[in-house]
Amino acid sequence: MDEITVDEALRRIEDGARLYDVREPGEWDEVHAPQATLVPMSELQTRWTEIQPTDDPAIIVCHSGMRSARVVAALEQSGVPAVNLAGGMVAWEAAGAPVERADAQRERGHEH
Questions:
Q1: Is 8 exposed, middle or buried, given 0-12, 13-18 or 19+ CB atoms closer than 10 A?
Q2: CA angle centred on 56, ends 15 and 78, rounded to 5°
Q3: What's the whole-model pTM score?
Q4: Longest Cα pair distance anywhere in the chain, in angstroms?
Q5: Are the CB atoms for 41 and 65 separated by under 8 Å?
Q6: Beta strands in the chain (DSSP E)
Q7: Which residues are catalytic?
Q8: Residues 42-83: pLDDT tens digits?
Q9: Cβ–Cβ contacts within 10 Å for residue 56, how many?
Q10: For the chain, first and last CA: distance in Å?
Q11: How far, in Å, CA of 56 to CA of 105, rounded?
């Protein structure tokens, strides 16, 4: 299974690769990458076909990289090229990559 760094993920996303977040909706609501599409691991069995194979492997992210590694393995067994984002959203945030937060969205909603 291939793993890539946040910097490599950002470069690939800029070049058209897709980022899929396999955390649960509550985790997503707390913080997520604005470029990501939510496909929770708990729904993967019925939604995996949303992760379409292209020339670029799909980039899979979770909180720390453990769940996404399992998802990457499952996708590869199904013939969908995918790579794991090493360190997950923990690494993404630590690298200063863009995030959206539920609390920031609520605060924006309260501005007058």
A1: middle
A2: 155
A3: 0.89
A4: 51
A5: no
A6: 3-4, 19-21, 31-32, 36-38, 58-61, 82-85, 100-101
A7: 62
A8: 999 899 888 977 778 999 999 999 999 999 999 999 889 999
A9: 14
A10: 49
A11: 31
Q: Which residues pair with 20 in a beta bridge?
A: 37, 60
Alpha carbon distance 58, 14 (integer Å): 13
Provide the token pair at 16.
């058209």
Q: Position of tokens 């899929």?
A: 20
For tokens 């984002």, the residue is 85
d(CA 56, CA 16): 8
The CA angle 33-37-42, to the nearest 5 degrees, is 110
Question: What region does 64 belong to: left with phi over 0, alpha with psi -120 to 50, or beta?
Answer: alpha
